[in-house]
Prior knowledge:
Layout: E1 24-31, E2 39-46, E3 52-61, H1 65-82, H2 84-87, E4 91-95, H3 98-104, H4 115-127, E5 131-135, H5 142-151
Parallel strand pairs: 1-4, 4-5
Antiparallel strand pairs: 1-2, 2-3
Amino acid sequence: MCVDKHNAKVIRLCKWSHPLGNDLTFNVDGSARGGPSLDGIGGALIDANGKIMHLFWSCIGLTNSNTAEVYAIHRACKLISFNQFLAERHIIIISDSKAAVAWVNGEGLGLLNLVDAVYDTRQILLLMNSVSIIFKPWSSNSLADSLAKAGSGLKEERI
């Protein structure tokens, strides 16, 4: 059997691992397409049963991939901090960017244009010690990836 590699689609299998007990996961992602195009961020808050509790996606203008990833984490932290119900729960924010996760967790400041967002995210994390931010590869974050891509062309945020 011959396969035309130009028309073949790659299907990635991923296993969703649910949070434990009453914990929640907030999968976030940034989409930077490069070139002269608008970039987006997105996120999905999911409970232990796989129920989607909250979605967001929005356009962030012209950026780069690191900026988009940090902004996605920052937006999730802001949404959590504004919601008393969420602020009292243990939430794991999952990003597919090792650099962004390292920066917001205190390993350097990242790019100069990200200092404000990184600092603000760190302040939110200090106030809400029940929120943690971890890295997981893209394959476990496909919903957030789709939301970020959808957000790239929006004129206003969707929550």
